[in-house]
From TrEMBL:
Gene giving rise to this polypeptide: LOC109474494
Name by which UniProt lists this protein: Arachidonate 5-lipoxygenase-like
GO MF terms, alphabetically ordered: metal ion binding; oxidoreductase activity, acting on single donors with incorporation of molecular oxygen, incorporation of two atoms of oxygen
GO biological process, one term: lipid oxidation
Domain PLAT: 9-126
UniProt superkingdom: Eukaryota
């Protein structure tokens, strides 16, 4: 008797097929139910004769008769026969409703291959030491290790070798950057922009009357206040730091900068936490040699010095474009000729955006979380509670990383075409930063802020990135702790969880030993406490959501108007303080077609492709404790969102990027 018979209904079974590429099946699908005493129902063919069941993304309902168990339901058994062997099926979730019983939920989130049977308990969330079908769990995890293999590139975070089919976009058109570029060009009515140079700044501004709209940076790009705000709330809001002492190679003297310190001596300003700096000298060394292969001018490796004035604004007071003091490497000041100071800020910003695109964006969000996601799939079963906790924050990540590396960061791709450093320079910068990056410092927001000396809200009261990110960090931390404490209520569950220990070990093991090589993983690769697990999972979720949002969604507002945050400049950095003109600024800018390429790609990259934080596209946790923790997390995010909105109203310049309602769950663009 099939599920389409019209006898008395003993069970209502719903099956949601996953919305993944090739996820549907035309094979014959069967189910059987097991009770707590080991009794088993008959095999039930799930089929409604008049419709095409199990299409990708579909929800199918089956009313089944003659399906009675003498005791409470314990688990289900699901399989498909050998008909159409290559037609594998991706199942999202199955529910079973029995008369007088609450609905039973069985998340599957796996492929069901022809001839294979899956046994699933309600909620499918348990530690490996309590698994009732250990052979099945081991078999499935071993299969995932074959699919999720590492690609090692010397000096870079490990990445996925080949994108598994589980990760492929079901709606790939939404993520096709090159097709989007063509469409946006057509919509903007500026397809025919030539390779001519801009005639004037007004000539450049006129292009924004079309559909792309004016980026935020266009309005105030000349102002020193805007330059200071870029350090606090631009694409790179997490690299400036408290200056306690002027670096030896930074040629700043008290005589130079004291006219801008509102009557303070340089020594007093340093002692009262009113002086901050950015040190981008890491961009020096061999990077200019790599860049020269692209026939581009030398990339700056600058210092900048900033001062918190009486209005609590962060203002630039000095810029040195190269690391070594010398007569042809002057310290530029706000009192220099206006266009000379302006072009010094532009060359500085080009170095800043080179670091942003290399590290803040690609290296320290996309690539690091790519390592973590791959390791998670390799070492934690889909049934593991920690997998279910983290999985929503890996959605589309591995696919978008593969796509970006093949289209934007490939030889001759957007990075080579549009950015001064080129792709080789980009990878070299990542390598320099990655070798010292630690999860427990740079990856842990409170520690990262303290490490830079920017956690003092009295000394630095107007820091939107910090003020918006910290409440979300603490909310994520509390959410993670609730789930971890519910899972590991006694220490023995941690030490006996071999999947968790393998995950910790592989995250921290050197790449030469087959690991991810992530430094500063709490516990050093062996977890013994709840705190260590929480301190590892929290940064992964935070970087996947908040960290990427901060690095990504300001891109069009910053890059979209090239003088504001230039990705590329012509000519050479200034070596004197000789007066310059507006024409010197125009001559340094990328030409019209180059500008358009930067505008369009950063516009696309600034789009949000997934739902807001906590509002998951796919539900992974169904167990009551996890569901309760998630609901409380959502409520806390709603309150934070309201507070963020009110805080933003009081700012001179809006910073909307880290309102929880604007932060996607995962890195998907």
């Amino acid at each position: 008797m099939s599920s389409s018979d019209s006898s008395a209904v003993d069970a209502v079974i719903t099956v949601r097929t996953g919305d993944v590429k090739g996820g549907g099946t035309d094979g014959n699908v069967y189910i059987a139910l097991h009770d707590v005493k080991g009794n088993r129902t008959r095999d039930v063919l799930l089929d409604v004769w008049w419709k095409n069941d199990f299409e990708a993304g579909s929800l199918d309902t089956f009313q089944v008769s003659a399906l009675i168990l003498p005791h409470d339901l314990k688990e289900i058994e699901i399989w498909r026969d050998d008909f159409l062997k290559i037609d594998d099926w991706f199942v999202e979730v199955i529910t079973v409703e029995l008369p007088g019983k609450p609905k039973f939920v069985f998340p599957v989130q796996r492929w069901v291959n022809a001839g294979e049977r899956l046994f699933l308990t309600q909620y499918d969330s348990c530690l490996p030491q309590f698994e009732q079908h250990p052979d099945q769990r081991t078999r499935l995890l071993n299969a995932k290790r074959q699919q999720y293999q590492y690609q090692q590139n010397e000096g870079l975070p490990v990445q996925i070798k080949e994108t598994p089919r589980d990760e492929h976009f079901s709606n790939a058109h939404r993520f096709d950057i090159l097709k989007k570029k063509i469409l946006l060009l057509a919509q903007s009515k500026i397809v025919n922009m030539t390779s001519d140079k801009w005639l004037s700044l007004d000539d450049l501004k006129n292009v924004y009357q079309y559909s792309l709209g004016p980026p935020k940076g266009m309005a105030y790009w000349k102002e020193d206040l805007n330059f200071g705000e870029q350090r606090l709330m631009g694409c790179n809001p997490n690299i400036f730091k408290l200056c306690r002492k002027i670096p030896e190679n930074f040629g700043v003297t008290a005589e130079m900068v004291e006219p801008f310190l509102e009557g303070l001596s340089l020594e007093d300003a340093l002692g009262s936490k009113r002086v901050y700096m950015v040190d981008l000298t890491i961009l020096g060394g061999n990077i200019p040699k790599i860049v020269s292969l692209h026939h581009f001018p030398q990339l700056c490796a600058p210092y900048s010095l900033l001062f918190v004035n009486k209005d609590k604004d962060l203002m630039p007071v000095a810029i040195q474009l190269f690391p070594t003091k010398g007569p042809d490497n002057p310290v530029f000041l706000p009192s220099d000729p206006p266009y000379t100071w302006m072009i010094a800020k532009m060359w500085y910003n080009m170095a800043d955006c080179s670091f942003h695109q290399s590290c803040t964006h690609l290296g320290l969000t996309h690539l690091i979380i790519g390592s973590c996601a791959t390791c998670t799939h390799r070492q934690l079963s889909a049934s593991h509670p920690m997998f279910r906790l983290m999985a929503p924050h890996f959605l589309y990540l591995l696919a978008i990383n593969t796509l970006a590396l093949k289209t934007l960061v490939c030889p001759g791709g957007w990075i080579d075409e549009s950015m001064h450093m080129g792709r080789l320079g980009l990878f070299d910068i990542i390598k320099k930063v990655w070798k010292d990056w630690r999860m427990d410092v740079q990856g842990t927001l409170p520690a990262e802020l303290a490490n830079r000396g920017v956690d003092d809200v009295e000394a630095l009261p107007n820091y939107p990135y910090r003020d918006d990110a910290l409440p979300i960090w603490h909310a994520i931390n509390r959410y993670v702790r609730k789930v971890v404490e519910a899972t590991y209520d006694v220490p023995a569950k941690i030490t006996e969880d071999h999947e968790l220990q393998a995950w910790a070990r592989e995250l921290s093991a050197p790449q030469a030993d087959g690991g991810c090589g992530i430094k500063g993983v709490p516990g050093g690769g062996k977890f013994t406490t709840v705190d260590e697990i929480v301190a590892t999972v929290t940064p992964i979720i935070f970087i996947s959501s908040v960290g990427h949002a901060a690095a990504n969604f300001a891109q069009y507002d910053e890059y979209g108007f090239p003088p504001n945050y230039p990705a590329f400049m012509h000519g050479e950095p200034p070596k004197t303080k000789d007066p310059l003109t507006e024409q010197d600024i125009i001559s340094a800018l990328p030409n019209k077609s180059h500008t358009l390429n930067i505008m369009v790609i950063t516009k696309i990259l600034s789009e949000r492709a997934t739902q807001p934080l906590g509002d998951f596209e796919k539900q992974y946790m169904y167990d009551p404790l996890g569901v309760k923790a998630l609901e409380e997390f959502r409520q806390e995010l709603d309150a934070i969102s309201k507070e963020s909105t009110e805080r933003d109203k009081a700012r001179k310049t809006s910073y909307p990027y880290l309102n929880p309602s604007e932060i996607p769950n995962a890195i998907s663009i």
